[in-house]
């Protein structure tokens, strides 16, 4: 075995588990199409939803995904991500439905405590309104169990009651990949095809499948502020506070959400292979390292999920 082929073979062996993860995701996506009347795929343009979209493309064929893509827009998203969202949906010929938190604010169903409050948690209201508007009975999302402790409790087919709420003690068993998809009027499911994937799995799959991502997932120069152990991006929505020093750092985003609560990490990783190498050494989860809104109990993930969050 020569020196050039050995690393390639080692990488092939280490990626074999991705075949079974992909197979499971495709099975779940097809199960949703067969079991529900009005499903939709939650699509933000972020890496996890792009991985699911790739699996859906393999499951049904390009231009043949049998459910629409749904985006709940806070109005405070990174433009690189929303632009890529629109590009990818158009490229696939998929129907893209966008509903905005700002519309909920105009209706009076969302009220901010102050103008600078993060809208991230308020997506729950807009999401539930979209479910009612389109009568969706299943929503496919990109949540993974390794992201956060509340998500580790959740089933792949996560039942939501008629109020859109998640009840951890009422989750249905999923033995031998048998999913109970029975619904009462007004209820729906959230379905997570990559629930068993890790952040490393996602990046290895992105590398293997050569999946395009928004540019902010890779190293770029950005003005940031060091605040409470996080690198807060300097934007109109997140300006520096008195006494804080603005510095330019080479950063990338591990996860992407609302500008007001998502931070990058220092990184020179310029491609998926570089990110895989970094992720192998990561000691903190992506949400733990980058999300300001997970730091307070009032905005805890479990509370938000019980209120109808993704």
TrEMBL record:
Keywords attached to this entry: ATP-binding, Nucleotide-binding, Nucleotidyltransferase, Transferase
Family: Belongs to the PAPS reductase family. CysD subfamily.
PANTHER family reported in the protein's UniProt record: SULFATE ADENYLYLTRANSFERASE SUBUNIT 2 (PTHR43196)
The organism of origin for this protein: Ramlibacter albus
Enzyme Commission identifier(s): 2.7.7.4
GO aspect biological process, one term: sulfate assimilation
Region described as Disordered: spans on this chain: 288-310
NCBIfam families associated with the record: PRK05253.1 (NF003587), PRK12563.1 (NF009214)
InterPro entries named in the record: PAPS_reduct_dom (IPR002500), Rossmann-like_a/b/a_fold (IPR014729), SO4_adenylTrfase_ssu (IPR011784), Sulfate_adenylyltrnsfr_sub2 (IPR050128)
Class of enzymatic activity (EC top level): transferase
Gene assigned in the entry: cysD
Protein name stated in the entry: Sulfate adenylyltransferase subunit 2
Domain Phosphoadenosine phosphosulphate reductase residues, every copy: 39-263
Pfam families per the UniProt record, alphabetical: PAPS_reduct
GO molecular function: ATP binding; sulfate adenylyltransferase (ATP) activity
